[in-house]
Amino acid sequence: MSGSIEVRGLSRTFHTTVRRPGFLGAVRSLVNPERVAKHAVRDISFDVAAGELLALLGPNGAGKSTTIKVLTGILTPTSGEARVAGVVPYEERERNARNIGAVFGQRTQLWWDLPVRESFAILRDIYEVPKAEHAARLKEFDELLDLSSFWDTRVRHLSLGQRVRSDLAAALLHDPPVVFLDEPTIGMDVVVKEQVREFLRYQVSERGRTVLLTTHDMTEVERLAERVVLINHGRLVLDGPLDEIRRKFGSTWQVRATLADAHADVVPLPGIAVLRQDGPQVVFGPDGPDAPTVHQALKAVIERYEVTGIAIDEAELEDVMRAAYAQAGPVAEPVAEPVAEGA
Amino acid sequence: MALLHAWRTARVTPLGELHTPPRMTAVLLRLTVQVVLVASLWHGLYSHTGTTAGLSEDQAVTYAVLAVLASRLRELDQYAGRDTVLQHMHFGTIVYWYLRPLPPQRYHALRAVGEQLYGFAWALGGYAVCLAAGVVEPPRSAAVAGVFALSLVLGQLVLYFVMLVLDQLCFWTVRNTAAALILIFAQNLLSGVYAPLWFFPDWFITMSGFLPFQATLSVPLSLYIGRIPLSDAPAQLAIQAVWVVLLFLFTRFLWRQAARRVISQGG
């Protein structure tokens, strides 16, 4: 079965009641409630090929979780359509459930009072997985996530890292071609994070699963995703390889040069500004929207000046994303518009 | 396979309880204390009187003790296991109910079946001890026992649906604590857990007839002690069955509406 994801012109609007501030405001809201429409997602389109890991990025309130909820069948879009492994998720929720696995951050789907292995057995029966297949998959997951060291422990006694590893296994026990991970490593220590990343890499490269990942951890994005979709204010801002995002928003580099002539007359170059000068030490940086890449700048500086030493500082992905979010618009709640009566 | 997944899901609560012996000890203690106190209370109340409200002392004590035992049939064991609708809405884990190929309403019902079977084992054990100790009277005939068993099953179905409405309320209000306090009090009072309905004024009994609560416990227990004669049993069973059908249809409607609400609260 193909695990591709197709999203076309997806929009979702929520209607909520605005609570006015103060006591009188609360009374007014009670008597005469003001309803507003919140556009969580607006006209989003993208594809994820089978066996691809895509990072869905954006600031808080951008519409990532709403998108995932539509794709998991929990939410019906206001307009547009989506297909996951050939199924329209919100029209055939149960059929879609067999094709997908999901982990929502720190929210566990395991049974709190039971040992982890009992939860796995319940899910095995719910998804009607043959016993031998279940055992083989559990063995494979144990090798990757070291589950057997704690799978006889009740879920309420697990550490966060153990619980998330168990949840990852639980989400994949029925062998779904598509996996949705909404901030799966939030709050975990670096060792467990790396273990989880290795597990995800394996699931994509060896098992051919399609993974849609949302995260605020840029290290995770760098290690796992080749392609990202960036959304903000519910709109798609960028869809492309990580390199493209770096090219477009990562112009925060610096070139540190030590000039041979300490008294040289240093002037700006096209698209390159002089940020600081202290004797022979000069720091160059990008100037304007047509600034060159860091490597082009390096070449330009060397060609223009005689240098005895040179170093470059590239922006971290986190800086790049900050720039991307800023250029895509201020980080804010989804836009709200008043709704006509009866809406 | 379908049976197997039903079995696994149904045994979640009993298994959770078996993994937590202190909870079982607490249940044992509570039942023992309640049975002793209730039996003493009703013996005391009847010490200077004969038949009251159509009930003899033995009938009243049997009714009251059976009411205590029956209250164990469906307690909210799910709460300790963080598996109530209220908790799932609060923690946002309700989304997982909608991500499985098992519809939420079936999952909820299977969990309840397991709980009620587990509670039934407790009630049956308590009943056997009370019967052997002479605290309660046996049913007067095999026919009474059979009608009582059928009425008890119907009563438990009515109780399940009433409590389900309370759970479903969470999809609209997130919290149902206030409603739960009101409903549980009404259920205990109007089903005759606190005292047999026969002791209440006529208008109260008439009013109760229009509500589902007396169908949960008062009817089966009254059939057991003979306060409702066997000749009236068919009509009472029919009323119980009507409540089951009505509440089933109502809760099915609410499940459909709830599916549209799950996304905006706790998702």
UniProtKB/TrEMBL annotation, chain A:
The keyword Transport applies. One of its GO terms (cellular component) is plasma membrane. InterPro entries: AAA+_ATPase, ABC_transporter-like_ATP-bd, ABC_transporter_ATP-binding, P-loop_NTPase. GO terms for molecular function: ATP binding; ATP hydrolysis activity. It is a peripheral membrane protein. It is found in: Cell membrane. One of its GO terms (biological process) is response to antibiotic. Keywords: Antibiotic resistance, ATP-binding, Nucleotide-binding, Transport. The keyword Amino-acid biosynthesis does not apply. Pfam families: ABC_tran. Residues 18-258 form the ABC transporter domain. Gene3D superfamilies: P-loop containing nucleotide triphosphate hydrolases. SUPFAM superfamilies: P-loop containing nucleoside triphosphate hydrolases. This is ABC transporter ATP-binding protein. It comes from Streptomyces spongiae.
Automatic annotation (TrEMBL), chain B:
The chain crosses the membrane at residues 117-136, 142-166, 178-197, 237-255. It comes from the Bacteria. Keywords: Membrane, Transmembrane, Transmembrane helix. Pfam families: ABC2_membrane_6 (PF06182). The keyword Transmembrane applies. The keyword Transmembrane applies. This is ABC transporter permease. It comes from Streptomyces spongiae.
